[in-house]
Records
---
Amino acid sequence: EIVLTQSPGTLSLSPGERATLSCRASQSVSSNYLAWYQQKPGQTPRFLIYGASSRATGIPDRFSGSGSGTDFTLTISRLEPEDFAVYYCQQYASSPWTFGQGTKVEIK
Amino acid sequence: QLQLQESGPRLVKPSETLSLTCTVAGGAISSSSYYGGWIRQPPGKGLEWIGSMYYGGSTYYNPSLKSRVTMSVDTSKSQFSLKLRSVTAADTAVYYCARHYLLWYFDLWGRGTLVTVSS
């Protein structure tokens, strides 16, 4: 099983700032089969990124993903008020499909 | 646009079976890319994949839950179902159904339903 570890646990930033979230895998994620999701309190997870760097339909370009192998990053170039949420990474290189524990982006 | 909706009892007694149904509207689930998945989220915690199923019958379960999980599909009703046996308080969670696109990522989600295990 591939274990995903996200850091930091919480990121305190102000609107307009840049957010950099990390997702590290316990073994290489083949073909960069990594996705990112956003979840706001009381809401359903929202699919953001697939293939480590491809944005899902309708996702603003301030969201970008990068990385390969075991280290992946989600960057939000300039935080908008609606971006404060919890973000999860998920690998789909091998079963069982696993999620990271999440990074909370909160308003400073 | 596909829409998914979970339904089922919100309260289950310990040792009993949790049963949920996901109804898919707005499209046929009998397509080559359609896998239905179940994910759960205990209150205040992260996401855990439970299992996924192809409309044709193939199933994929999380090894940590495999001994207690059964998934099924009814294509005539566009529904996927989940059964989780011998539940305990640790199974209290919001249960989501989702489209598990090509067994890759979960691109469409239901609203989720909170199931509480308590006597």
---
Amino acid sequence: EVQLVESGGGLVQPGGSLRLSCAASGFTFSSYAMHWVRQAPGKGLEYVSAISSNGGSTYYANSVKGRFTISRDNSKNTLYLQMGSLRAEDTAVYYCARLFDSSGYPTTNYWGQGTLVTVSS
Amino acid sequence: QTVVTQEPSFSVSPGGTVTLTCGLSSGSVSTSYYPSWYQQTPGQAPRTLIYSTNTRSSGVPDRFSGSILGNKAALTITGAQADDESDYYCVLYMGSGILVFGGGTKLTVL
């Protein structure tokens, strides 16, 4: 069974940093691209960042480019999101997700339960 | 910047049929965009209903169907039930590993 478990969320002051982690199990982690998707309170889903299976390619939404860094450790089956220069508008539930199949197409997908990040003084 | 458009809200009567649509700010949606539809209830992670235009995910009832209607992707719910009241998101694949989410449609069943 595919499982994605996020951790690392919490309350952080504006301008601060936070690192989210996502522990993956139930599939060959190193064969799949991985993603972070967020949802601000009462708002829709936003595609934040993506990383290829070997970590060689990354993607960032314009809203986080230059402030967030996605990475992965395939030996630990873990995905990370390093968030810096945090702003109030980064307040959201952050979901770790596997949104593509092993061929690189958006077919079946899996989501974690989400971790809440609150940016406030 | 590509914008994926969805109706902000829709309502359907129990047992009725509703079609939600997903368009592009410029251009037409085709199967090449691998349209997917996610369902999300409050406090829960999204759940995939449909991917690759019209393929139902495992366990999804056949009252949910996906298609291309004109220049948009469409999600049709036939015989709506009370627990279909959710937010529905369309997601399009832009290539190079990039997905774009629509703003979501809040469906009310009443």
